Fold these 2 entries.
Entry 1:
Amino acid sequence: MAASSTSDPIVRVARFVDRTIAEGPGERSAIWVQGCSIRCPGCFNPHLFTTRGGTPTSATDLIARVVAAGTSGVTLLGGEPFDQAAGLAAVASGVRRAGLTVMTFTGYAYPYLQGGDRDVAALLEATDLLVAGPFEQDRLDHDRPWAGSTNQEFVHLTDRLRDVTGPDRLEVTVTTSGDVALNGWADPETLDALLDGLPVRRPRR
Ligand code: SF4
C-alpha cells in the first residue's frame, strides 16, 4: 500500500492545481497523484492507474507550493493517495503545520486503512476529512458534494472541515492556448453533453 519513509520523500504527481473551489470545502489546492492499484470499473481517471508517468516531486516542494498558493488547505486525490502514503503523509503533515486543512480521497475503505502500516497511519493522522471507498458506477451520488458514489464514506478525523454540505461543482478552466481542464464532479451523461467536441483533460477522483 505504501513506500517506506525518507526524510524528504518523493510523490509521483499527475497534476497540481494551485486554487480550486470544486475539490472540497472552500478554496483549496489540489494534488492528483499518479498510480492507482484499486482500478474501479468506470473510474474517470484510468490514465492515472499506471505508476509510470507523472512528475516525481519532493514533499518539501509540494508543501511550499500549497502554502504559497494562499488557500485554506490541500485536497489529495488521484490516482490513489494511500498507494503513496509515505510521501503524502509528509505533505499533509507539513501543510497542517502551516495551519491549513487536509482532505484526502481514497478508494480504500476506512476500516482497511485502520489496519495499515505506519505510513498509512501517518497520512490518516494528518488528514482532517477522509472520503473513503471505491467508486461504484451503478451507485452514483447525486446528493452529496464531492462523493462519486453513495457507498463512499465521509470520515471526520478532526473537527475541522465539518461542513460537507453544498453543491457539487464542476470547474472549467480554459487556458490562453485553448486547453480546457475540469475539476469537480458531474455524472457521465452531464459531462459528455457539456464537453462534446472540446479538447478536455478530465482529472477526477
Ligand atoms: S475511482 Fe479512485 S480509487 Fe477508484 S480506480 Fe479511480 S482513482 Fe483509483
Entry 2:
Amino acid sequence: MQAAGTTPSWANDQIWQVVVATGEHLTQIKRAHLAALQSGRSGYSEFPPLHRDAMAAQGRSNVRTWSTDLQTFLGPQYGQMTTASAQLFSAPAIAYLLMPAKASLWTAYDLGAFGQTLMLAATALGVDSMPAAEFVADPQQLHTILNVPADYQFGMGIGLGYRDEQAKINQFRSERMPLDRYLTITD
Ligand SMILES: Cc1cc2nc3c(=O)[nH]c(=O)nc-3n(C[C@H](O)[C@H](O)[C@H](O)COP(=O)(O)O)c2cc1C
C-alpha cells in the first residue's frame, strides 16, 4: 500500500482514499452482494459503465474474443464464472479505492495508476490480486457498511489473496493484442 502511495497524481493532490475490507465487514459485504443478486436487484457502479454497443470497435472485438476464449477454455465449467462472481471471488480482503464524488477524469486516471501500482507491489510480495467492477456494483450497501460519506465515491475494488490453483478459471490466460495493433511511433 505504501508503494501505491508513491503513485504520481494531478499536481500531487493524492486525493485517493483506500478502505481495505476484511473480517466481519467483508462478510457483511458478501452477504449483501449475494442477497442483491438473488433478489434480482442489479446494482450500478458509481463510475458510469458504457453499454457494449457503444464501445469502440477495437474494444468490442477484444471483448468478444475474450468471452469466446473463456467459454471454450472452461467448457462445462463456465458456471464457475457466475459462482465466483456471486461470491466476490472468495477474496479474503478487498481494497476499495475511493475518490471524491466531485473530481475530474484526471483523478480517475490517478486512481487507476494507484490500483496498478498496488497490484504490481502485491505480485512482488507473492499476493494475487484482481480488479473487478463487481466489487463496486452495489455502492449504496458499501457506503453504509463501510461508513463512507457520500462526498466520496467507490472507484474500484481490488481483491487481494492467494489464487486457488485447483480452480480451472485460474489457469486461463487472456490474450493481449500484438504491439502493432496499438502502438504508433512517429518521427
Ligand atoms: C476495470 C476492470 C473491471 C473488471 N471487472 C471485472 C468483473 O466485474 N468481473 C470479472 O470477472 N472480471 C473483471 N475484470 C477482469 C479481471 O480483473 C481479470 O480478468 C482477471 O484479474 C484476470 O486477469 P487477466 O486480465 O490477465 O485475464 C475487470 C478488470 C478491470 C481492469
